[in-house]
Amino acid sequence: MKPEVAWKKYDETELAEVERIAKGYIDFISDYKTEREVTAASIEMAEAAGYRDLMQMFADGTPLKPGDKVYAQKHGKTLVLAYIGTDPLVSGMNILGAHVDSPRLDLKQNPLIERNGLLHLDTHYYGGIKPYQWVTIPLALHGVVVKEDGAVVNVNVGEDPDDPVFCVSDLLIHLAREQMEKKGSKVVEGEDLDVLVGSRPFALADDAEDKPASEKTEIEKLAATEPVKAFHLQLIADKYGIEEEDLLSAEIEVVPAGRARELGADRSMILGYGQDDSSCAYTSLLAQLALTETPKRTAVTVLTDKEEIGSVGATGMASQFFENIVAVMVELAGEGGEICVRRALAYSQMLSSDVSAGFDPAYASVFEPNNAAYMGCGLVFNKYTGSRGKSGSNDASAEFVARVRHIMKEAGGSFPTAELGKVDAGGGGTIAYMTAKYGMDVIDSGVPVLSMHAPWEVASKADLYEAYKGYLAFLKA
Questions:
Q1: 364, 353, 370, 360: which is closest to 442 by C-alpha?
Q2: Of 107, 205, 245, 259, which cross-links 111 as Cys (Cβ 3.0–4.6 Å)?
Q3: Which pLDDT belongs to residue 388?
Q4: Distances from the Cα of 275 to the Cαs of 182, 233, 413, 453, in angstroms?
Q5: Would you give the distance in Å from CA 419 to the centre of its chain?
Q6: SS3 3
Q7: Which residues contact 229 (CB under 8 A, 6 or more apart)?
Q8: What local confidence, expressed as pLDDT, does residue 210 receive?
């Protein structure tokens, strides 16, 4: 069955809604590019919608009842939002699960390198990237530096029009004969993604040269051998009050600088960074916050970290964070006990909200046309992901697929199905199998994206709107 283009069914009212969601989305992904920023912004939006801190309620011994709205976070990088329903938690929840991390460059713990009068930041790429895509584009720095006394210094440089930007340089074409003969994976290698940040040397005072070493500041000593590094250390000391050693406990992410933009003469698409998985995380968040009446089944949205590197660590979906939050909710709802937590998880149903590979006619050979995700056709469902013989896949049951079909039809949504390319073309996974381990029904659903994992990705406004509609319908079901 060939999916229909969603644009064709919209009246003026729905077209206005498409644009409303797209505008908010452009602002959101332009302003919040890291998991910390997305989580903080999401909590602010949730609190404005009446959500309360679950862990504070637990500390106060405040019971949970139908109609309560709560949230819980971990390390400022992952977030759970829950709207408590009229049914007991042990009968299961309706869950949306998206991730808020995206491929990027991370600064190493000792990042500053001065070579031949140029200062670079040494990086380690995060998630699956094509390194050659990251050269010569404007880059920004986002993150935190945590000082030894626990003080947290926020860093965001490169987004304001008055800010400087940074870049990874490339070899000029005139000298690139050997480079151009390399395989794509070797044209630019990961260890060469050093970010150029400056060239101005530290200027010693007239009398500094004659000072005894014991009287010189550390910056003046460093200026003798690494003057550009010395200048920049003085710069960050003046601006942020941090020293080089503080970078040992920093999390600074290098991301494309600049705002997301409307794409196309018809303004039907959006070009922006991090749409895997912001396109699903934002629409899931909107759907959760749009619930105005107490649902029958508790409605939950999970915005998780570390998906791009295997969902590992304390803030990834493979951790016990979500399970622990459910245990707290069950306890405060008066349904406590290990078996009740297990039942609440096992009887839940979930949409793993993650993007699909949009069909690109420029690279049609890696897609199977009858089972591809086409741009502008709606919220795409993937019964299974994985690679080759469905390795690493959740593979949703036929019964659950039928239930989801019914929910989407009742909501008037567009919901094509797809696979991630041809069987042996590659593959990929999501968080679906990590929650399915509890016995809950899970299926992948998301927005089709072009140029996935590139610094700038493409999504359709219509697909964002259909994702929002579909996620909201599922939470209400």
A1: 353
A2: 107
A3: 83
A4: 30, 34, 21, 9
A5: 22
A6: coil
A7: 112, 114, 119, 222
A8: 64
Q: Which two tokens stand for residue 168?
A: 């990874």
**Separation of alpha carbons 101 and 88, rounded Å:** 32
CA-based Rg of the chain, rounded to a whole angstrom? 24
**Quick one: pLDDT at residue 214?**
65
User: What residues in the chain have per-residue pLDDT under 70?
Assistant: 205-215
Mind listing the domains of the chain with CATH numbers?
6-102+273-476 (3.40.630.10), 105-256 (2.30.250.10)
Q: Which helix (H) or strand (E) holds 157?
A: strand 152-157
Model pTM above 0.85: yes
In terms of Cα–Cα distance, which of 471, 439, 435 is closest to 321? 435
Q: What pLDDT, on the 0 to 100 scale, is given for residue 208?
A: 62
Structure tokens at 97: 């699960």
Q: What is the arrangement of strands in the sheet containing 349-353, beginning at the earlier edge strand? A: 52-53, 69-74, 78-83, 298-304, 93-99, 349-353, 441-446, 380-382
CB count within 10 Å of CB 138 equals 13
